[in-house]
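Hi R.,

As promised on Friday, here is the backbone we talked about, encoded as structure tokens. Could you run it through your design pipeline when you get a chance and send me back a sequence?
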């Protein structure tokens, strides 16, 4: 029993570590996104439309990356919660099968089948997540467009005042 607790505890440590690394990458990506937004403003102000389009492409790419990191963080948090519950159950003697992410290496073919099933489940989850990522991308694009429109209106009003 203590071996199982140790294995689950190690998996929990790996999950928490992975979540921290993803959060750090997420923070850096958000900082980079802010920098690219400033570059976009500068290129638009300078009237460099071709360069502005390239910068907008980079911004969209970063927004997708950020959305993926956010999804990964949520996934790690879910896994962390599941592992904590498993540890609690093991420590309190509640009978349950081994956690899904810790295969029993003694049963060979069954382990391979379970791992394949997990891969299929992960792929199905990713397909579902892709739809929500696309929806978030569309929302972000719409926000970006509305901000661009507001910026353009502001520029036009400033030009009118200057004249």
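Update: got your reply. Pasting your designed sequence below so it's all in one thread:
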């Amino acid at each position: 029993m203590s071996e199982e607790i140790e294995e689950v505890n190690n998996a929990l440590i790996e999950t928490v570590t992975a979540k921290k690394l993803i959060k750090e990458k997420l923070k850096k990506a958000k900082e980079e996104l802010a920098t690219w937004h400033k570059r976009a403003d500068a290129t638009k102000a300078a009237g460099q439309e071709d360069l502005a389009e390239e910068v907008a492409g980079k911004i969209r790419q970063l927004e997708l990356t950020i959305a993926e990191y956010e999804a990964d963080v949520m996934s790690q948090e879910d896994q962390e919660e599941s592992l904590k519950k498993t540890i609690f159950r093991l420590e309190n003697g509640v009978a349950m099968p081994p956690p899904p992410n810790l295969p029993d290496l003694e049963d060979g073919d069954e382990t391979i089948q379970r791992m394949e099933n997990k891969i299929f489940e992960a792929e199905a989850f990713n397909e579902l997540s892709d739809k929500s990522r696309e929806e978030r991308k569309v929302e972000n694009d719409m926000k970006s467009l509305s901000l661009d429109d507001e910026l353009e209106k502001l520029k036009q009003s400033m030009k009118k005042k200057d004249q």
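One thing I noticed while checking it: The chain has a mean pLDDT of 78.

Thanks again,
M.
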